[in-house]
Design goal:
Structural class: mainly alpha
Shape: elongated
Low-confidence stretches: none
Radius of gyration: 26 Å
Distance between the termini: 65 Å
Strand content: under 5%
Number of strands: 0
Mean pLDDT: 80
Order of helices and strands: HHHHH
Length: about 120
């Protein structure tokens, strides 16, 4: 029979059924600050580029000879957005460094917390 490659716990009849009276405790770590920062940088990049495109299209459709103040501000802000992926990688590298040095706990050293 080809059932030999299945784990022994799944070969037993009823192994996939769970008793509704037993609750399994699951542990989920809270979302790390690193993930929040990377998500916010990504969302900020998308919003600034979208708003800049809308402002630019609005200027073109209204036949303005010069870009509006809002368009200038958004285009200036969009020039700094290539730094967002670099910042995300910096945050991620620091998170990996902290997890590696604290053996998976993620808590920085006591002297770091004092500052």
């Amino acid at each position: 029979s080809d059932a030999g490659w299945w784990p022994a716990s799944l070969q037993q009849p009823g192994a996939l059924r769970q008793d509704p009276n037993t609750k399994r405790e699951l542990f989920f770590r809270p979302t790390s600050v690193t993930l929040w920062c990377v998500m916010l940088l990504t969302i900020q990049s998308i919003l600034v580029h979208t708003c800049a495109a809308i402002a630019h299209n609005s200027d073109e459709l209204s036949a303005r000879p010069q870009p509006s103040y809002v368009t200038d501000v958004l285009q200036t802000a969009s020039r700094s957005l290539p730094l967002a992926p670099t910042m995300g990688m910096l945050f991620l590298a620091m998170r990996i460094f902290t997890l590696e040095n604290t053996h998976g706990l993620g808590e920085p050293s006591h002297w770091v917390k004092c500052f």
